Amino acid sequence: METLRQDLRYALRTLARSRAFAASAVLCLALGIGLNTAVFSLVNAILLRPFDFRDPDRVVAVYAAHPARGIHKMDASAADYWEWKEGARSLADLAALSGHSFALAGDGAAERVEGMYTTPNLFAMLGYAPALGRLPAAGEGREGSAPLVLLSHALWERRLGSDPGIVGRAVLVDGVPHTVIGVMPRGVQFPETAELWVPSIPDRTEPRSSSYLWVLGRLAPGRTVADAQREVADISARAAAAHPETNRGWTAEVMTFRDDMVDGQLRTLLGLMLAAVGFVLLIACANVANLLLARGAVRSRELALRAALGAARRRLVRQMLTESVVVAVVGGALGVLISVWWLDAILATIPERLPYWLRVELDGRVLAYTALLSVGTGLLFGMLPALRTSRPDLQTMLRSGGRGETGNAGRLRGALVAGEIALAVMLLTAATLMTRGFLAVTRADAGFDTRGMLTMRTFLAGPRYDSVKARAAYLNEAVRRLEAVPAVTRAAATTAIPTDDGGPLARLVVDGRPAEPGSELLVSCFASTPGLFDVLGTPLLEGRSFTAQEAADPAAAVVVLNRRLARQLWPEGSAVGHRIRLPGVTDSTWLTVIGVARDLQYEEFGEETPQSRLQIHLPYARMPHRTMAILVRASREPAAVVGPVREAMRTLDTTLPTFDIRTMDEVRAYTMWPSRVFSQTFNSFALVALVLAALGIYGVMSYHVAQRVRSIGVRMALGASPGAVRREVLRHGAGLALAGALAGVLGALAVGRAMAGVMYGVGGTDPLTLLGVPLVLGAVALLACYLPARRATRIDPIQALRSE
Questions:
Q1: From CA 361, how far away is CA 340, in angstroms rounded?
Q2: Measuring CA to CA, which of 127, 348, 641, 708 is 20 to 30 A from 42?
Q3: Is the sign of the CA dihedral 304, 309, 311, 313 positive or negative?
Q4: To the nearest 5 percent, what fractions of the chain are helix, strand and coil?
C-alpha cells in the first residue's frame, strides 16, 4: 500500500509538470468515456434495469400471429383470451387490456386522458398496490355493473387537486359517472403513459374476428416461456380446427414483457450505438497511447538513469501504469459531466412523453460501469507504451541525451494512427448512412400534398354519442362549421391521419372468387366523411367518393379502393362496379366499389406492411369510431387558423376534447423523430471521432518532424527544396491515411450490413457513402499533415545542425 501511495504521489507530481500532456490526454479520454457512459445509461434504462413490478422477468405478453402471412404481435380476440386463460396451465394468471382515449370532464374544458380498459386482475397480477383505496375485485367490470375507475397519481394531483377524499366519489369519464376506487402510486402509468384505468371484462360472445386485446400473463412457478408457447400454440391449433372460418392459419406467440416493449430494431440500434462509442473510445485511447509513446521518448534518459540505478522493469511499468490510470480516472470524472450534458441534449429533442419505466439516469450500475471503464481504459492505453519505454537501451539513451525515437516505436505510432483512421471511417460511414436514411424519410412521397393542412383529433365520449346517427351528425356539423372559418377551404373527418396512423385489418372476399377460410386477403380499413380526398388534394383516379347521405348511413354498401389493391384484384380492367365483402367489418353485406383512390402512406415510413399498403375506404357510418381525426385544408398558413378552428370545435360541444392540433408538416416531423434523433446521435459520435483522428495524425506528424529536425536540416543544407521536404512529410502522412482508410472501408462494409435493417431507403452497401467517406477523411488527414509539413520547410539548417 505504501508503494502505491508513492506511485500516486509521483504520478501526480509528474503530471503537474506536464500540464499540456495531462490536459490533452484527459480531454481525449473524457470525450470517449463520457459518450460511453451516456450510451450505457440508455442501454441500462431500456434493457437492463428491472421493471418495478413483482418478478418482472416472469411477466409475458401473448399475441395472435399468422406466420404464413408474416403477421406477428396481433391483438387477440375475447375468445382467444378466455381460451388461453382457461387452458394454459403454464400461465398462473392472464389479464387483458385495450388502449383508449378517455374524456375526463369537470371544471373547465374536457381533458383527453390516455388510459386503458383492463381486466380486474391486472395490477394484482403485476404486484402493484394502490397509494389510496383498493384494486378492482374479481367480477367488477362486467357489462351492466357499476362503472369504476382507477386514477394515476399524476392525474389525481393535476386534475383533482390531490383530494384525499376522492375514493368513493364519482368523476365524469366519457360523460358517464365512474366511482373512483383507488389512486395508484406516484410514477405508475402502466403500461407506458396511461393515467386512467377502467375495469372491464371481455365478453366471450364477441365475434372471433374482433381483435383488440393486449394480453399479459404471469408464468406459473417452474414454467418457462417455451412451456407457455407450446400450450397456447396447441390451444390456438384446436381453435383453428373448430373455427376455420375465422382462425385457420392463426396461432399464438409468447414473449417476455421486456421483449414486447423493446423490439429487435431498437436492440440493434442500441448495439450499434455501443459499438460506435466503443470506437470513439478506442480512437481516444490510441491518441493517448501516442502521447505516452512520445512522452516516453522524451523521458527515455530519466528512465535509463532509474534503470541504471537499479529500478526493476516491473517497478517502471507499474509507475507508468499508475500515471495512465490517474489520467483515465480524471478523464472518467469529467466524462460523467459530459454524459449528463449529452443525455440532456438528446432527450430534449424527443417530442414524445417517455414510458414511465424508462428513467435515464446515472444510477449505481452506470457509475460502476464508468469506474471500471476508466480503470480499464487506463490500463489499455498505458500498457503498450509502458512495456515499450520501460526497457531502454541504456548506452544509447544516455549517449543521445534522451532525444530521438529508438527501435520500431515510430512504426507503432503510425499503426495506432492508421487504426484511428480506420475506426473513424467506420463511424463516419454509420453516421452518413443514418443521415441518408433520415433524408430519405423526409423526402418520401406520402401520396398527398402536406402543405396547407391542419390536423386535430376529437373523441366522441358519453351516452350522447352512443348512436351512430348522433356521431355522424356531430361530425357533419363539425365539418360544416370548420369550412365556415375564414381561410378554410375544405374539411373532413377520418379514422386515421396519413403518415401517422394505421387502420384495422380485415379479411377481404371478392364476389365470384371463393377463398378457403383463413386464406383471404388482409387489408387495412379506414372510414371518413365526404371530402377526404379533396382535403388531401388527391382526386380519385376512377369513379366517385361517398355522398353525405352514404357517410351517415350504416347500411351504405359502397367502398373506395386504393390503386394498389384495385390492380391486384382486377389487373386487366376497372375495379369500379365490382363487389367485395369484409367479414367482421361489414358481416355478410356485399359492398360495391364506386371509386379508386391514390395510394396513401398511412403507417409511419419504415413501418409499412403488405397489409397496410392495401387500403379500403369506407363511409364513416360503416366504421363509426369515437376517436376521430379531423383534417382541414387552409388557403394560407395553417398555423394561422388554429385559434378559429379550436374555437369552432369548442362551441360545438364543450364537453368533448379537441387535442393534438398540428400542421401536417408538424405531423411528418413528429413521426420522423426517431430517425432524426439517431441521425444526430451518430453524427455527434462521428464528429468527435473525426476531430480525434485529425488530432492524432497531426500529433504523429508533428512528432515525426520534430524527431527528424537534424536530417531535414542536412537535406536542406545540401540543396533540397522546401517543396521536396513538404512532399516527403505529406507522403508519410498520406501513407498512414491510405492504410487506415483501406482498412476502414472493409469495416464499413460490415457496418453497412449491420445497419441495413434499421435504415429507411438506403442500402447497407451504398457505393456513394463507401467512396465519399474515405475521401473526406483523407482530405482531413492531409490537412492535419500540412501544418507539420509546412513547419518542416521552415527549419533553419544551421540551427538544426547546431542543436545536435
A1: 9
A2: 127
A3: positive
A4: 50, 15, 30
- Say whether pLDDT at 396 is over 60: no
DSSP conformation letters of 152-178: -HHHHHHHHTT-TT-TT-EEEETTEEE
Q: How far apart are CA 698 and CA 635, in angstroms?
A: 57
Q: Any bridge partners for residue 115, and if so which?
A: 100, 196
Contact 119, 141 (CB under 8 A): yes
pLDDT tens sequence across 472-526: 999 999 999 999 999 999 999 999 999 888 888 888 889 888 777 667 788 999 9
Report the pLDDT value the prediction gives residue 272, as an integer from 0 to 100.
87
Sequence-ordered alpha helix ranges (H) in 446-545: 468-483, 532-536
Residue 250, φ and ψ in degrees, nearest 5: -90, 140
Residue 96 grid cell: 387483458
Mean pLDDT within 237-249? 89
Asked whether 346 and 680 are in contact (CB, 8 A), the reply is yes
- Closest listed residue to residue 457, CA positions, set 625, 659, 655, 633: 659
Distance CA 519, CA 407 (A): 74
**Helix axes 767-792 and 673-707, enclosed angle (nearest 10):** 30
| C-alpha distances out from residue 390 to 4, 293, 306, 397, 703, Å | 18, 11, 10, 12, 20
3-state secondary structure 435-471: HHHHHHHHHCCCCCCCCCEEEEEEECCCHHHCCHHHH
Element spanning 6, H or E: helix 2-17
Tens digit of each residue's pLDDT (9 = 90 or more) over 319-347: 777 778 888 899 999 999 999 999 998 88
Alpha-carbon distance of 507 to 780, in angstroms, equals 58
For residue 85, the Cα-to-chain-centroid distance in whole angstroms is 33
Residue 425: name the closest of 39, 27, 781, 36 by CA.
781
Burial profile 172-190: b = 16 or more Cβ within 10 angstroms, e = fewer:
bbbbbebebbbbbeeebbb
Q: What is the pLDDT of residues 55-65, one digit of tens each?
A: 999 999 999 99
Pick the more confident residue, 455 or 787.
455
pLDDT winner (highest mean) among 207-216, 420-429, 578-587, 593-602: 593-602
DSSP string covering 101-121: EEEEESSSS-EEEEEEEE-TT
Predicted confidence band at 295 (pLDDT cuts at 50, 70, 90)? low
- pLDDT tens-place string over residues 129-172: 999 999 999 889 888 888 999 999 999 999 888 999 999 999 98
Per-residue DSSP letter, 147:
P
For residues 477 and 576, what is the distance between their CA atoms, to the nearest angstrom? Answer: 30
Rg over alpha carbons for the chain, rounded to the nearest Å, is 34
**C-alpha dist (Å) from residue 35 to 200, 280, 341, 788:** 46, 8, 10, 30
Average pLDDT, the chain: 84
**255: how many CB neighbours lie within 10 A of its CB?**
17
Name the grid cell of 553: 348511413
Nearest to 69 by CA among 612, 509, 521: 521
Rounded to whole angstroms, how far apart are CA atoms 436 and 416? Answer: 30
Q: How far apart are the first and last CA of the chain?
A: 44
Looking up cell 386482475 gives 121
φ, ψ at 127 (rounded to 5°): 90, 20
What's the burial of 129, exposed, middle or buried (CB within 10 Å: 0-12/13-18/19+)?
A: exposed
Give the span between the Cα atoms of 177 and 180, in whole angstroms: 9
Q: How many other C-beta atoms lie within 10 A of the C-beta of residue 607?
A: 12
Cα–Cα distance for residue pair 413/701, rounded to 1 Å: 10
Q: pLDDT band for 404, please (50, 70, 90 cuts).
A: very low
- CA pair distance 767, 283, nearest whole angstrom: 25
- What pLDDT is stored for residue 377 in this prediction? 86
Vertex 344: Cα angle to 338 and 346 (nearest 5): 100
Interstrand relation of 211-219 and 615-619 (parallel, antiparallel or unpaired) = unpaired
